[in-house]
Automatic annotation (TrEMBL), chain A:
Keywords: ATP-binding, Nucleotide-binding, Transport. The keyword Nucleotide-binding applies. Signal peptide: none annotated. Pfam families: ABC_tran. It comes from Fructobacillus fructosus. Belongs to the ABC transporter superfamily. CDD domains: ABC_HisP_GlnQ. PANTHER family: AMINO ACID IMPORT ATP-BINDING PROTEIN (PTHR43166), PHOSPHONATES IMPORT ATP-BINDING PROTEIN PHNC (PTHR43166:SF4). InterPro entries: AAA+_ATPase (IPR003593), ABC_ATPase_HisP-typ (IPR030679), ABC_transporter-like_ATP-bd (IPR003439), ABC_transporter-like_CS (IPR017871), MetN_ABC_transporter-like (IPR050086), P-loop_NTPase (IPR027417). This is ATPase component (GlnQ). The keyword Isomerase does not apply.
From TrEMBL, chain D:
Residues 50-276 form the Ionotropic glutamate receptor C-terminal domain. It comes from Fructobacillus fructosus. The keyword Transport applies. This is Periplasmic component/domain (HisJ). InterPro entries: Bact_solute-bind_prot3, Iontro_rcpt_C, Solute-binding_3/MltF_N. Belongs to the bacterial solute-binding protein 3 family. Gene3D superfamilies: Periplasmic binding protein-like II (3.40.190.10). Residues 50-277 form the Solute-binding protein family 3/N-terminal domain.
Length: 245, 213, 217, 289
């Protein structure tokens, strides 16, 4: 069963054609990495999946719901689709643990004791149990991003979206975040769609790699195939440039 | 000072009505202002248009005209005293300015806060109420404070419609004692008792908030 | 509808429009005077001259925190008691200028504060005096930033002029009251008409402010 | 170095400013005292060759602005003009009448502040006011009456002597004293002007307006659902007011008023302004020789 399905999707920002004829299917449990030069539409694409961006044409089916249908309740979908952002977007007015507990309390009406237990468990898993009562402003970037991941996991989503989760971090922070992400990919059956420039992570974790440029999907192949011999010329060029760095 | 002693009960009762009108209008305009700020920011054209129209209307029309409208026209249909008419007008007028402050506050909050909350599964309303608005109000405190000071000063509009407030009583005392000079100075001191602490409190808060940044 | 036509006869309309003219005249005169006065006060507060700045600031704060209506009544009714006797038009201009100067001085001080300190250091390092720096470097930049808030202050002025109807200044608001004294059926039409006049005048000003804001940004 | 200079300047300027404020304060207090002293209105009138009258702008039949000319028109205005002319004759000079609009709360203030020379603005002669201003002989026989809704059943002010009732008056009129005397238990609400009072009555904020009968007749002309009841409470005629202690001006005015009554000008004006008012017997107002 597919978790995410794009059918002939088109997206415009005014006159700018941001996504062109996107057709893409991601099965439940798959880990897919989305790469491409900046401005290629990767972020736009991932943001459409939980409705932060609207599409203008085509069909986008997530977890069985058609997002383009105005009758669809976005809140229902977002319950099952978590997202981790480039700039973390932690709630500035809440402590670390409150950041994690808020949505389960308001949306899932999770029992308070249970909520706290799960939140602490998650904090331990990302290695930040001692920061539970700090404000986000007291954390480093890498710590913030790990809290953001814990916050998404607390909703027990079926699908998790990562929008360049490490590109705003100092190099020495990246490892910790990637480690957490890899653990999630390995020990759960969660669907993951990751926009990243970390080729090492892609190679190690992804089932499939999708290459985008100019709002189009140019290559969609298995990880092994992609890194060995991409069929698309631009993908080849991109890979060689990234490898040189 | 003999004037004050002679008419002190008038001054005190006027002060009470001014305080009452200010407090009622404060609460009402805060609620209305927030509501219209949210309307202005709505993605639906109709709602945002409605919000904008409301704010533009009340920002660009004199408070006195609005007050007279309630007092002379609306009161024909819905019976109300000058005090009520004045306080309603004051609330609506101030709410347009508060809407602008709150709107600016909301816009100053990083878009990521809303997106993070939405992606986290919160509904738009929940995200607004629990995450964005509390932060927006904090940012808006200095400008909200200024609006509250203006509100207290503007409550003098009640004098035009028999609103029994400080200014109304001041006019009465000035007209019957003919020591206009002293009467109005006493009225001024009463207003300052309300507005000066607010003003200095706001300055203090503003400096502290700037220090935090 | 009939009431509208009856209320807005050519005579009444002409009478009201003269009132609008008085409203505009008072507003423009007041903004000019208060701008000059407010600049002086604003600069004094900005310069942080020991004792003097805080004294001026305190006096300024007192004026700012009084209702304009009180200041208008005081100027017209109380000042004659010490021999300062002004016609109602000039009395209004004086009261509004005095009050608005206190409001504007805060805007001007804020505008000056917002200029990067590097501008001072740069100018002073080239050998310009404090006064020259102020005149040629700081004030022009600050005024440019202050144009939008100045226009919104002008909008307040146009609105606040209506308060002077309380001392029988024959402005738009007062004249409206005179017209509906002819017949109480005219109250709604006249109020609607006055609202329309004020709204158009002020809305145009606010559009101007927005446009300048965009151009200067 | 510069810092010290600034400091010195600051201290000097502060002391100077405080001194200026103190001096201004004393000067103001002194001027206020001086200003209470006598100024002769007649002398001023003779010097300027004008009499500046305070008149109403919003009172039908007495002083209502004609929007075509922008000038107040009414019995008060016409009488003031006639008086000016007559006083000029008595003083052997040509006097001009000028008019300044006043409202109920500003008329005495302006008189005291000498912005205007006299007040012809439906002003009732009372003992209280006579302590503050000088009145001429009565020029219009008025008294307080009640304006109520025709179906209200209220017949006299006694019906309103109850804490649950509210009586509407205009600010700065004598109605307050009448109400205090006749219906001490009733609540009183003072409005800025008669139009507001009428509106308040219609809105049910009060049960009756108490004010001068002449003004109430003006209100009735456009509000046929209302009528005037309660007779005339106390003969409270209108007088022309001048600043306090102006025997010269008052004497000239009284002579002029008597002359106008004698030569028929007065009656002509009465008929001009009150001839059309329904329910008012004009002959009661006219003077008989």
């Amino acid at each position: 069963m597919s978790m995410i399905e794009f059918k002939d999707v088109e997206k415009y920002y005014g006159d700018f054609h941001a996504l062109k004829d996107i057709n893409l299917k991601i099965d439940a449990g798959e880990t897919v990495v989305l790469i491409g030069p900046s401005g290629s539409g990767k972020s736009t694409l991932i943001r459409t999946v939980n409705g932060l961006e609207e599409i203008q044409e085509g069909q986008l089916i997530v977890d069985g719901f058609d997002l383009h249908d105005p009758k669809t309740d976005m809140n229902k979908i977002r319950k099952n689709v978590g997202m981790v952002f480039q700039h973390f977007n932690l709630y500035n007015n809440k402590t670390v643990i409150e950041n994690i507990m808020l949505a389960p309390r308001l949306v899932l009406k999770r029992d308070e004791a249970e909520n706290k237990r799960i939140a602490m468990e998650l904090l331990e898993r990302v290695g930040l149990a001692d920061k539970a009562n700090n404000m986000p402003s007291a954390l480093s970037g890498g710590q913030k991003q790990r809290v953001a991941i814990a916050r998404s996991l607390a909703m027990k989503p079926k699908c998790l979206l990562f929008d360049e989760p490490t590109s705003a971090l100092d190099p020495e922070m990246i490892g910790d975040v990637l480690k957490v992400m890899r653990e999630i990919a390995e020990d759960s059956d969660m669907t993951m769609l990751v926009v990243t420039h970390e080729m090492g992570f892609a190679k190690a974790v992804a089932d499939r790699v999708i290459f985008m440029a100019d709002g189009q999907i140019l290559e969609d192949s298995s990880t092994e195939q992609f890194f060995k011999d991409p069929s698309n010329e631009r993908a080849k060029k991109f890979l060689s440039q990234v490898a040189n760095h | 000072m003999t004037i004050f002693n002679h008419y002190s009960s008038l001054f005190y009762s006027g002060f009470g009505y001014t305080l009452l009108a200010s407090l009622i209008a404060l609460v009402a305009s805060l609620v209305l202002g927030t509501l219209f700020a949210l309307l202005q920011l709505s993605k639906k054209r109709l709602w945002s248009g409605l919000g904008n129209a409301y704010v533009q209307f009340f920002r660009n029309v004199p408070l006195l005209i609005i007050t007279l409208f309630f007092y002379l026209a609306v009161a024909k249909v819905i019976k109300m005293t000058g005090f009520v008419a004045g306080t309603v007008a004051l609330s609506l007028y101030t709410s347009a300015f508060i809407a602008e402050s709150v709107r600016a506050g909301i816009l100053s909050i990083d878009k990521g806060q809303m997106e993070g909350a939405l992606a986290n599964g919160l509904s738009y309303g929940q995200a607004m109420r629990v995450i964005v608005l509390p932060q927006a109000f904090k940012v808006a405190i200095p400008s909200l404070g200024n609006q509250f000071i203006n509100l207290v000063k503007n409550s003098s509009i009640l004098a035009f419609v028999g609103g029994l407030d400080l200014m109304y009583q001041g006019n009465l005392v000035a007209a019957s004692s003919f020591d206009t000079f002293t009467s109005y100075i006493i009225v001024g001191i009463f207003y300052l008792v309300l507005t000066l602490p607010l003003s200095y409190g706001m300055q203090y808060l503003e400096e502290r908030l700037q220090g935090n940044r | 509808m009939n009431d509208f036509l009856n209320a807005l006869t050519p005579d009444n309309l002409g009478y009201l429009m003269q009132g609008l003219w008085i409203t505009v005249a008072v507003s423009v005169l007041s903004i000019v005077v208060s701008f000059i006065l407010g600049s002086v006060i604003g600069i004094v507060m900005f310069e942080k001259i020991p004792y003097f700045s805080s004294l001026v600031g305190t006096l300024n704060n007192i004026v700012r925190n009084l209702p304009l209506l009180l200041i208008i009544f005081f100027t017209y009714f109380a000042l004659p008691q010490i021999g300062i006797r002004l016609p109602v038009f000039w009395s209004t201009v004086v009261a509004m200028s005095f009050f608005e100067a206190a409001m504007l001085s805060e805007i001007i001080r804020g505008g000056l504060d917002s200029i990067d300190k590097g501008q001072f250091e740069g100018a002073r390092s080239t050998g310009m005096s404090n006064r020259q720096t102020m005149m040629y470097i700081i004030l022009p930049q600050a005024y440019k930033k202050m144009i939008p808030p100045l226009i919104s202050q002008l909008i307040s002025l146009v609105k606040d002029t209506s308060l002077a109807s309380g001392i029988v200044l024959a402005d738009l608001t007062f004249r409206g009251q005179v017209v509906y004294a002819q017949n109480s059926h005219y109250i709604v039409p006249i109020l609607v008409f006055m609202t329309f006049c004020y709204f158009i005048a002020n809305y145009l000003l606010s559009l101007l402010a927005k446009r300048l804001d965009r151009r200067l940004a | 170095m510069e810092k010290n200079k600034k400091r010195l300047f600051g201290i000097t300027a502060s002391i100077l400013l405080v001194l200026i404020l103190i001096v201004a304060g004393f000067w103001a207090a002194n001027r206020a005292h001086e200003n209470r002293m006598h100024q002769d209105t007649l002398a001023r009138v003779e010097k300027t060759k004008t009499i500046n009258w305070g008149v109403k702008t919003d009172t039908k039949l007495f002083g209502l602005v004609n929007t075509k000319t922008g000038q107040s028109e009414g019995f008060d205005v016409d009488l003031a003009k006639a008086l000016t002319k007559q006083i000029g004759k008595q003083l052997n000079m040509k006097l001009t009448a000028t008019f300044t609009p006043v409202n109920a709360s500003s008329k005495v203030q302006l008189l005291k502040n000498t912005n205007i020379d006299g007040v012809a603005a439906v002003m009732t002669i009372t003992k209280e006011r006579a302590k503050i201003v000088d009145f001429t002989d009565p020029y219009f026989p008025a008294g307080n009456s009640l304006l109520v809704k025709k179906d209200s059943g209220i017949q006299s002010i006694k019906d309103l002597n109850d804490p649950s009732k509210t009586i509407l008056i205009a600010l700065g009129t004598t109605a307050a004293d009448t109400v205090k005397k006749e219906a001490p238990k009733a609540k009183v609400l003072a409005l800025q002007d008669y139009a507001s009072a009428m509106q308040a009555l219609k809105a049910g904020q009060g049960q009756a307006i108490v004010t001068d009968n002449a003004i109430l007749y003006g209100l009735v002309t456009e509000n046929p659902d209302y009528h005037v009841v309660g007779g005339i409470m106390g003969y409270a005629p209108y007088g022309i007011a001048f600043d306090h202690n102006q025997p010269g001006m008052v004497k000239e005015s009284n002579e002029a008023l008597a002359a106008l009554k004698k030569n028929g000008t007065y009656n002509a004006l009465i008929r001009k302004w009150f001839g059309q008012v329904q329910g008012l017997d004009v002959s009661q107002l006219e003077v008989t020789q």
